[in-house]
Structure formats: structure tokens, C-alpha cells
Specification:
about 170 residues; 6 helices; mainly alpha
């Protein structure tokens, strides 16, 4: 029981990292670990952790979009910049940037949206300074969203540990 608990906590910690780092599932890993614990040991005492994990998963999705939208809006980005950021994310993760000798997909996930937003905004406005400003706004909004998701993920893991620790300590 202790080994499984430790492994599930480890999965949850990867989920916390995933909440902050794009490309790694965050809240869904934490929710999955809680469900595994519930299936193996019964869902007794898991109402709060499960409810919090589901709420955090839903809120994380909203935070992702709202934070990026807020950053783009504050910097005056158009839809072109936002679309460019999404395309840049996909191309950065799956395309050329993973072939780099260092950084790999993580570097692609960080640089792709920035470069994509610059290209998208430049195609729309034909002004490089405005394109860079809009891209930075999108990037800052995304980073703020990731930090909020990280805090929510940590809170979810804490709620799980506080709710289940007595089961482990009593074993």
C-alpha cells in the first residue's frame, strides 16, 4: 500500500510540473492518480480530493485560455497573433525544434508560441515592433496562466495527502 501511495504521489508531482510546463499533462495526471487510489482502496474519504481535482482540471482549462487571451488583449494582439502562437506551439513541439541538439521539445514549446505569435502578428499588421509586443503579451499571459495552474495543482495534491495520509499512517 505504501509503495503504491508513493508512486501515485510521484505521478502527482509530475502532474504539478506538468501544470507549469506546457506539453506535460498536469491536472489530468493528478486526477488519474486519485482515481487509481480510489479504485484500488475504495473511494472512502476521497470526496474532497476527487471534487477538488475535477474542479482544478476544469478551471485549468479555463485559466489557460483566459490568461493567454488577457495577455494578448493587454498587448494589443490580434487573432492572427493568437493563431500564430497556437501554430507555433504545435510546430515547436512536433516540428523542427525537437531536432535541436539541446532543449528538444521543451525549447520548442517555449519558443514556438513566441515565434508563431510574432509571425502571425507581422503578417496581419506588417509592423515588427507591434508584432513583438503582441507576442510578448501572449507569452506573459501564458506564463501567468501556467503559474496559476501550478498553484492549483499543488493545492490538489495537498488536499489528497491530507485526506488519505491517515490511511497510510494507520497501515
Amino acid at each position: 500500500m505504501t509503495i503504491l501511495y508513493g508512486l501515485l504521489i510521484l505521478v502527482m508531482l509530475v502532474g504539478v510540473v506538468g501544470a507549469v510546463v506546457p506539453g506535460i499533462p498536469g491536472a489530468s495526471l493528478i486526477l488519474g492518480a486519485i482515481v487509481v487510489w480510489g479504485v484500488v482502496y475504495g473511494f472512502t474519504g476521497l470526496a474532497w480530493p476527487l471534487g477538488v481535482a475535477i474542479a482544478v482540471l476544469l478551471v485549468s482549462i479555463g485559466v489557460d485560455f483566459l490568461a493567454t487571451y488577457w495577455g494578448a488583449k493587454q498587448a494589443g494582439a490580434s487573432k492572427w497573433g493568437q493563431i500564430g502562437a497556437v501554430v507555433g506551439l504545435v510546430v515547436g513541439f512536433l516540428g523542427l525544434l525537437p531536432a535541436l541538439p539541446f532543449g528538444g521539445p521543451l525549447l520548442g514549446i517555449l519558443l514556438g508560441p513566441l515565434l508563431g505569435a510574432i509571425i502571425g502578428e507581422y503578417l496581419y499588421q506588417r509592423d515588427l515592433n507591434l508584432a513583438i509586443k503582441a507576442a510578448v503579451g501572449i507569452l506573459v499571459g501564458s506564463l501567468i496562466g501556467n503559474l496559476i495552474q501550478g498553484v492549483l495543482a499543488i493545492a490538489t495534491v495537498v488536499v489528497f495527502v491530507l485526506s488519505t495520509w491517515s490511511q497510510i499512517a494507520g497501515a
